[in-house]
Amino acid sequence: MEQLGFYINQGLCTGCKACTVACKDKNNLDVGMNFRRVYPYEEGTFVQQPTKGLVPNIKAYYFSISCNHCEDAACIPSCPTGAITKNKKNGVVTIDQDVCQGTQLCIKACPYGSPQYNKKVFKSNKCDFCMDLQEKGEEPACVGACPMRAIEFGPIEELRRKYGNIAQIKGMPSDSVTHPNLVITPHRDARLANS
């Protein structure tokens, strides 16, 4: 099996959300449903100086994330109907819409917020790595749409050899929980103390 994964270069991400819009358009998602999301992260304050000026001590960056097609995907055992499976050939985690009963237990189980509930059809769904596009030799919609080329995809071992093993940054759940197939080049302000 050649496990697929995503690579995110936070230093390049401008928060434009082209990846979110492309994914939303490709999957015909309703308002409020996003298989790929871009989150802003901000911290810090303005420091008052004795000379009455303000000095900014602000850190801010963006982070794009979707399903990480985890090694130990929490959504799979949470599904009472067996609708969520991991493909043995490429490691992509999918939700069979014919089997899903809309219990939303996958939504509660996923630490990354990947499964999204569709109130019109009463079912959950999520990123399927645009396998239909990949089978035609195309990139996933989010990868192709990024104007900064901040998102890449491919076999996770190749991405790790090329970019390292960081799969967690400030504000994210521990990568030891589900072992996401994700590699991140963190923004300088997003690094964890031990990375």
Give the fraction of residues assigned to helices: 10-25%
Unreliable sequence segments = none
Any idea what the radius of gyration is? Answer: 18 Å
- What characteristic shape results from the CA principal axes? globular
Total DSSP helices: 6
Largest sheet: 3 strands, mixed
Average pLDDT metric = 94
Secondary structure: elements and pairs:
Elements: E1 4-9, H1 18-27, E2 37-48, E3 54-65, H2 75-78, E4 84-86, E5 93-95, H3 105-109, E6 116-118, E7 123-125, H4 131-134, H5 141-145, E8 151-155, H6 156-163, E9 182-185
Parallel strand pairs: 1-9
Antiparallel strand pairs: 1-8, 2-3, 4-5, 6-7
What does this structure look like?
It is built from six helices and nine strands. The protein has 195 residues and is of the alpha+beta class.
